[in-house]
């Protein structure tokens, strides 16, 4: 049985003080839940204090991006070693907003996946099709290209450390959710690609989260699907109470 993993993605929201305030509240709401992985992705400026705020709790902190070099002349960027040094455990990579606004390619995302693993952290690799791709029957093709590209050259042992987040782009921040059946179908296709890349045993262990307008009122049904192992939550992760309700749905 795979353990469910619920991760929040705050995106470009919350000052340092707001982050600490919410995490302090969330810690109490999810206290003692040990059969669900709980992760909060926070902006760079809040990471250090976020790690301190959740110390000793069941919440881990994720960065929302990283630059795949050790150090050097990359003005404005943040290295994996810098994140690791402050206690960040996960890094969200290849989010559709980064693919769209910052033109990140599968090749570049693959560099980041490898750099995060090499630094001893765990990647959350986001994949997902746009509306026109779904409507033209290309969902399987698009997600397969993103998985094969993002996880290129990884060993099975490395792949086991990666969380894949399937996020149909048309469902992110729009209030439109894939139906549980639709999501399950794509999750199964995603796992089949992982089987062909890394073998059955590894693919069965890997966590595949669903993301795209997951909320307290649809989380139970989505999380009940066989191949949906958790959620990556945007909007509903900004309030401690709604995020905690989704965590509870994963129990
Ligand atoms: C996301 O940004 O990863 C996401 C799923 O957002 P939302 O839950 O707001 O759709």
TrEMBL record:
Pathway: Carbohydrate biosynthesis; gluconeogenesis; Carbohydrate degradation; glycolysis; D-glyceraldehyde 3-phosphate from glycerone phosphate: step 1/1. One of its GO terms (cellular component) is cytosol. Transmembrane segments: none annotated. It catalyses: D-glyceraldehyde 3-phosphate = dihydroxyacetone phosphate. Its EC number is 5.3.1.1. One of its GO terms (biological process) is glycerol catabolic process. Homodimer. This is Triosephosphate isomerase. It comes from Fusobacterium ulcerans 12-1B.
